[in-house]
């Protein structure tokens, strides 16, 4: 009598295992532009940024892109104090005008709707000590990693990596002679909001050419490492 029950249970077990395999990471073929680990709490902010730069919501991305671009262009033409002051004045003009308008409407209609921003005034925006410590701990991980990388590069733990940094900084001197910081930020924003979409559309062609460039770069680096003193000996050990 035990064998039939086992036989009847086996289909449900196999079906549940197949569902688990299909829902496991890497088990199903997701789209290239899909946000990884969408359901986890830890990657909520990263998935929001991912959807933003891939233009999943055109209105939301257009608003963020347009606002930040206007702010950067304003900073290129005016001082930081002027731009911040104008932004605060614009925001206050909108809120004060809306507050006065609603007060007049309530006085004319003799209604008691109350403060128009009461729902937002009642929102709890206090930062708990636990959340603050979590943010600090997360920041410390990145700070310690950056400090370790800086020490490694400037004390020449790996000669090739330090030479790469030197060449990059040398190239940045020419970039700094042509562009200032605000111009670079504007170019970076244009690239951030355009390159991911283009890559998603032409992924196969781009990966092909990037692979060719990577192979050529790897072969050149290996030739340089073979001629540098100490590198070949370190690899042999």
Automatic annotation (TrEMBL):
Keyword Transmembrane attributed: yes
Reticulon domain boundaries: 49-237
Membrane topology per record: Multi-pass membrane protein
Transmembrane segments: 63-92, 177-199
Organism from which the protein derives: Tursiops truncatus (Atlantic bottle-nosed dolphin)
Compartments, record wording: Endoplasmic reticulum membrane
GO biological process, alphabetically ordered: brain development; endoplasmic reticulum tubular network formation; neuron differentiation
Keywords: Endoplasmic reticulum, Membrane, Transmembrane, Transmembrane helix
PROSITE patterns: RETICULON
Pfam families xref list: Reticulon
One GO CC annotation: neuron projection
Comp. bias regions, Low complexity: 1-24
Region of interest called Disordered, as start-end residue ranges on this chain: 1-27
Listed name of the protein: Reticulon
